[in-house]
Amino acid sequence: MSTSDLALILFSSRLQASDHPSAEQVRMAIDARLCDCGEDRSVCAALVAQEAGDHPDTYAARMRWALSTVSQVYAAAA
Fold first, then answer.
1. Range 45-53 average pLDDT
2. CA Rg value for the chain
3. Which pLDDT score, from 0 to 100, does residue 76 have?
4. Burial (Cβ within 10 Å: 0-12, 13-18, ≥19) of residue 32
5. Could you tell me if 19 and 35 are in contact, meaning their C-beta atoms sit under 8 angstroms apart?
6. Spacing of C-alpha 52 from chain mean position
7. What's the N-to-C CA distance of the chain in angstroms?
8. Which domain of life is it from (predicted)?
């Protein structure tokens, strides 16, 4: 999966930047959320779109956090 795909899944998870999650917590949140979405990334993408529409004021900051976090976590794993 691409960084963008992983970030969409993380964005739609319950994990928050304020939790200061560990790499393991991020991976577990992504795996759990993808499982909750029936392994269908498009379901997660739809949830992100819904959040963007419902909370446009916080969307950009959360997506930046998700992209940055995924980049750090999965770069460290490589």
1. 91
2. 12
3. 66
4. middle
5. no
6. 13
7. 13
8. Bacteria
pTM of the model: 0.89
Residue pointed to by tokens 């940055």:
68
Residue type, 19: D
Instruction: Enumerate the domain spans of the chain.
Output: 3-13+20-77
- Is the pLDDT at 36 greater than 70? The verdict is yes
Mean pLDDT of 31-41: 92
Q: Single out the residue of 76, 75, 77 nearest to residue 3, CA to CA.
A: 75
Structure tokens at 45: 């993408």
What local confidence, expressed as pLDDT, does residue 77 receive? Answer: 64
Task: Give the number of other CB atoms < 10 A from CB of residue 70.
Answer: 24
